[in-house]
Design a protein that fits this description.
This protein is 55% helix and 8% strand. With 346 residues, it is α/β, with parallel strands linked by helices.
């Protein structure tokens, strides 16, 4: 007994002096339990939803239209679950794990408090803005191209009681739109190869916009086509598996062609009422506005000016024969599955 007490004293002294070696990785962050989720709803009762989709697939337009409804707020882009460092980084260290689950912490009920902390942080961020706007249903839109289906699994660990909206756009249009966006928004992050493509496009846009020269190159086209296909497939698969009837998918092209019908379906899915003529008129007015074109023109006028000379340029015009082959190889079946093509003969 006499040997135990000095050992404890030495251990305590080492901890106080910062000499104890902590483990380098924390254990797995547990998902929130049903009981914990129910408790969270008692404090933060507003309905929560999250909009996922590949980059440049219409997530921003969809969010703007959602916001027309007086009961619903959709802000962006928190990237709680879809882009590092992710919401879980708040508790993703051994030191925080030790603090939140230690036996002497009488607040944790003998469990790791990490999922409760994550849920409380996200709930507060979402509801703070929703309450300021007087909304009853709140969500975040964050494209999940980088994390694909993992974003859905990350969400389920914190919001198993949440709702997912997944918007899909023809991947050939999506990757082209993202390419131009990257040229305009991320010039400092361009690789040497990307800078060469950008400079070539500005100098001779006609050769790219008419399909004579590829805007991607083979390696890049393989990557973007595969990323789009995997994001669509994995998000849909995990959304259906984990959320069932609390998962809804829609196509960007249908949103443009049948805006009122699609938004009625979506608002009803979210539990928002009052779908009357006034709301339809407000939605139609929002459809007519374009909040990004002027800003893009000012931000990088060289790329925009080159594009404006060919306003009707599409993937059909811009893809080279090799671009088509690669996209078909990587994502052709996904295009068929989502009814963008009847078969692979395009």
């Amino acid at each position: 007994m006499t040997g135990i007490i000095p050992k404890r004293i030495r251990t305590a002294a080492s901890v106080l002096l910062g000499r104890t070696q902590l483990k380098t990785n924390r254990g797995p962050i547990p998902p929130i339990s049903e009981e914990e989720a129910a408790e969270a709803r008692s404090f933060f009762p507003l309905k929560k939803f999250f909009v996922f989709g590949s980059a440049r697939s219409g997530t921003t337009l969809l969010s703007r239209l959602i916001n027309v409804h007086p009961q619903v707020l959709c802000n962006w882009q928190a990237h709680f679950f879809s882009r590092p460092p992710l919401l879980k980084s708040l508790v993703d260290t051994p030191e925080v794990e030790e603090w939140l689950r230690r036996d002497s912490n009488r607040w944790n009920r003998g469990k790791d408090l990490s999922p409760v902390v994550l849920r409380a942080a996200a709930d507060y961020i979402l509801e703070r803005e929703a309450r300021r706007a007087g909304k009853l249903i709140v969500g975040d839109k964050s494209p999940n191209s980088y994390s694909r289906g993992q974003a859905v699994r990350n969400m389920h660990d914190v919001y198993p009681d949440g709702t997912i909206l997944h918007i899909i756009r023809d991947g050939r249009h999506a990757v082209l739109s993202r390419r131009f966006q990257f040229f305009m928004d991320n010039e400092s992050q361009l690789t040497r190869e990307d800078k060469a493509f950008r400079s070539g496009f500005i100098a001779d846009p006609e050769s790219y916009l008419s399909g004579k020269r590829s805007l991607f190159g083979e390696e890049k086209m393989h990557f973007v086509a595969r990323q789009w296909a995997e994001t669509v497939n994995e998000t849909d698969r995990e959304g259906r598996r984990l959320y069932g009837d609390r998962y809804l998918s829609l196509r960007y092209e249908d949103l443009l062609a049948n805006s009122w019908q699609e938004m009625q379906r979506l608002w009803e899915f979210l539990g928002a009422g009052g779908l009357d003529r006034n709301l339809q008129q407000a939605m139609e007015a929002e459809m007519q506005s374009n909040t990004s074109t002027d800003w893009q023109r000012e931000k990088n006028h060289e790329v925009m000016q080159a594009m404006q000379k060919y306003p009707k340029a599409t993937w059909q015009a811009m893809f080279t024969a090799r671009d088509r082959e690669i996209f078909k190889e990587e994502a052709g079946q996904v295009l068929v599955d989502w009814h963008y093509e009847k078969d692979l003969n395009w």
